[in-house]
Amino acid sequence: MPSDQATEKSNLLLKLGATVERVPPAPVVDPMHFVNRARTLAAQHECDSDRPGCGFFADQFEIEANWRAHYEGTGPEIYQQCGGSLDAFVAGAGTGGTISGVALYLRPRLPNVKIVLADPQGSGLFNRIKHGVMFDLKEREGTRRRQQVDTIVEGIGMNRVTANLEAGREFIDDAVKVTDDQALAMARWLVEKDGIFVGSSSAVNCVAAVQLAKQLGPGNRIVTVLCDSGARHLSKFWSRAGNIGDKTNTKLDDVISGAGQT
Predict the structure, then answer these.
(1) Mean pLDDT over the full length of the chain
(2) What separation in angstroms does the CA of 209 have from each of 24, 121, 214, 245, 253?
(3) Average pLDDT over residues 237-258
(4) Rounded Cα gap, residues 167 and 160, in angstroms
(5) Would you place residue 149 in the very low, low, confident or very high pLDDT band (cuts 50, 70, 90)?
(6) pLDDT at residue 246 above 90?
(7) Residue 194: which H helix or E strand, with range?
(8) Cα pseudo-dihedral 58, 67, 162, 36, rounded to 10
């Protein structure tokens, strides 16, 4: 996994008996990109008869089983729990499997449902959906600080279109860009107001859902996904978010403006 990811993720895998190789963030064309490195290690494992078991590369970004799992599971669950009545679904794209699978399930049953991508700063997907161009201002020459998406958010946002995202891309109607400050403020607000302790991807989803709700107005039912726990983000995202303390007066408008992050 990339070496800039929160250490809680690799530590958990180590406790479960895995061997974890943390590699520097790199472009997807680099052999040392974490996906390419995983593919190589799986092949080496498979070819080495001295190693027990088999090598298996899950290929989560490209494998069709990813979006199909959400088409067969998440999509029907949302549809049934909403009684077949919802106006919009909002989600970020890490592999793209969730938003594509849900979109592919919902759109034939609800032709007017809006499918909206929640995208963190530094990711090019917002502009790809809005304008057909994969670009973000934070990625322009002379400003980029990292080799991948320039954000504190983990798990969503990228600068390429995966097979999983492509599967449902035609059904994605719009995109919302979310800044780091907005995500941090939303994570704090969810703890303060609802006692929900989420990670960075969930915070981005919630910011985008609120922005869409303000756009659509009262009476619309909007569904999003809380896809990660804050417990996996203590050393990075929540380290910057800080402790909530006894704060109880944060306003949602301040969260959306980013002013709620202190």
Answers:
(1) 90
(2) 33, 16, 9, 26, 13
(3) 86
(4) 14
(5) low
(6) no
(7) helix 180-194
(8) -10
